[in-house]
Amino acid sequence: MPPTQQQNYGPHYEGPNHRDMQPYFKYSQCTGKKRALCIGINYVGQRGELRGCINDAQNIQRFLCTNYGYKKEDIVMLTDDATNPRQLPTKANILSAMQWLVNGAAPNDSLFFHYSGHGGQVKDHDGDEGDGYDEVIYPLDYEKNGEIVDDLMHKIMVKPLPAGCRLTAIFDSCHSGSALDLPYIYSTEGKVKEPNLAAEAGQGLMSAVSSYAKGDMGGVFKSAMGLVKTASGNTQKAEKITKATRTSPADVISWSGCKDSQTSADTQEAGEATGAMSHAFVSALAKNKQQSYQQLLGNVRAILKAKYSQKPQLSSSHPMDTNIMFIC
Q1: What angle do CA 324, 325, 327 make, to 5 degrees?
Q2: CA 246 to CA 25: how far, in whole Å?
Q3: 87 vs 77, 94, 101, 324, CA distance in Å?
Q4: Given 53, 174, 258, 328, which residue is catalytic?
Q5: 118-127, 177-186, 192-201, 256-265: the lowest-pLDDT one
Q6: Is 174 a catalytic residue?
Q7: Catalytic: 318?
Q8: Which residues pair with 149 in a beta bridge?
Q9: Bridge-partner residues for 121, per DSSP?
Q10: Integer angstrom CA distances of residue 73 from 36, 37, 95, 137
Q11: What is the pTM of this model?
């Protein structure tokens, strides 16, 4: 099991009443309530129709119920073969299901979000993306109502979570490397891909984090812009803004089908249409439930590597020990 105590990291800073403060988070023991949202969109009859996404959602639901103690009545399914209009993966239904997922979240809860469908990129307007693009997912009615941007998904599903609450997310979609906008990204070597925040930026970072917690985005950008003066180039600047505004005391972990710059495959496995990432994730854990995050990332990547160029990524809302066992 993961450590139960509060985990502190990063630079110390002066808090209210001159108290010594430091960023912190808590791992979830995943012993509380379990809830899941599975979205599968094949876009039947639209341009870019897919075949495997509804199967993915159903496979993940079955996998969670069989292996991790989730109950069907605690899982919302949004698929475009639904007969009930409230269960169609429209933009409004997806946003309201995301809110349901995190509503009343408490320490040691385990929440699970799975999305299989089209993903893409749009021009980033708030400076938090190194590549200049925000990652998006496409609801069934995107042509009429538009896409859902990573910033909004983060605001709905990550920001309200208390310390010690787990959200596990899987994005089986193109350009999904940072689809939840989490600041720490891990490779198969277990290293954080971005450099840590420089200690000298600590002051600026912390005022940004406290503004973020209060919902004062103006304060966030003032502080974050102060701290980016110590960085050069867009990518470094974006990393600092992301870390200043997107770290969380909750335990949020996201698996994505590929890097931001890559596409994700819709494929056939054992005669069934499926998303390559969803299939690899379930297959790796079916072989062995007892794996660390490090091992699981390596095994998912190995399954994909045999056939596809996409490299799955693991990202987190906090610096994490990838040698602890995967639970959800």
Answers
A1: 125
A2: 13
A3: 7, 9, 14, 36
A4: 174
A5: 192-201
A6: yes
A7: no
A8: 136
A9: 135
A10: 10, 11, 19, 25
A11: 0.83
